[in-house]
Structure formats: C-alpha cells, structure tokens
Design goal:
The protein has one domain: Orthogonal Bundle (Histone, subunit A), CATH 1.10.20. Helix content is 51%, strand content 18%. The relative contact order is 0.11. The N terminus is likely disordered.
C-alpha cells in the first residue's frame, strides 16, 4: 500500500510500505524516498524519477544489511555483543571493495 502525505505548499512525500526480501529476510522499506531524491540530485542529476529513488533506497538497504552482518561478525570475533563504529567502518570498507 502506498501512502501519500500532502505537506505545505503542495509538496508531496511518498512513503512506501512494501516489504523487501533481502538475503532471505523479508523487511519493510525503512529508507524513505525523499532523502534518495536528495542524494541523486547531490550527485548531479537534473531530474529524478520516483522509480530511481526507490531503487536507490532498496540498493542502500541491501548494502546496509551486508555491512551490518559483517560488522556483527567483527564484534563477535572481538568478544563483544556491542557493534561499535569501528566495526561498521571496517565492514563497510570490506563490503564496498568487493
């Protein structure tokens, strides 16, 4: 179900409640579309479609889950239950170089 929120000055922000299957787990889209529009615009696009914004959100969620899983492995290897920022940094560099 797609929900549409009408804000001030006729600006619309779309929130999608679709569930996405990432690495065997079904999870809701947690990254909103509006920030994806901003990221694509910041990268230099003149215009951004809704489909491209949602596709970027899905891709970032998938990458985020991979980084988080890798960071959990680093924390466990260090004998900790708490994932720290350094675990995320190491995991992100490892996942993104693949």
């Amino acid at each position: 179900m797609n929900l549409l929120f009408q804000g001030e000055k006729g600006v619309s922000i779309k929130y999608f409640s679709k569930r996405v299957k990432i690495e065997g787990y079904t999870m809701p889209n947690e990254i909103k579309v509006a920030p994806m529009h901003k990221l694509i615009k910041r990268a230099g696009a003149a215009r951004v479609s809704e489909e491209s914004a949602t596709a970027l959100g899905r891709a970032l969620e998938e990458i985020g889950v991979k980084v988080a899983k890798e960071a959990i492995d680093y924390a466990r290897h260090a004998g900790r239950k708490t994932v720290k920022a350094r675990d995320i940094e190491i995991a992100a560099s490892k996942v993104l170089e693949r």
